[in-house]
Amino acid sequence: MRAVRNVWNVAISLLLGTMIGLIGHQLAADAIARLWPETAFVADAARAFFWLLGLGATGVLFFSYYLDDTAR
To the nearest 10°, the Cα dihedral for 60, 62, 63, 69? Predict the structure, then answer.
């Protein structure tokens, strides 16, 4: 049963982290690219920032779910 919960925790964590990365990639970085087309580096940095934010959120969520499951 613990393995099933770990798989579920990984799935939820990856889903939420990917959503953060995709939203930042699609919305924030594209808005920056449209507002300031001459500064493409800023849009690329925003894309990288949101993907790193999503990756960090994935790790934090997984470990919080994992610690919550092991506390029971």
Answer: 140
Nearest CA among 62, 70, 57 for reference residue 2: 70
> 7-25 pLDDT, tens per residue?
888 899 999 999 999 999 8
Question: Residue 43 corresponds to which tokens in the numbers above?
Answer: 């849009």
The token pair that represents 2 in the structure block: 């613990």
DSSP-assigned letters across all residues of 7-64: HHHHHHHHHHHHHHHHHIIIIIHHHHHHH-TT-HHHHHHHHHHHHHHHHHHHHHHHHH
What pTM was computed for the model? 0.79
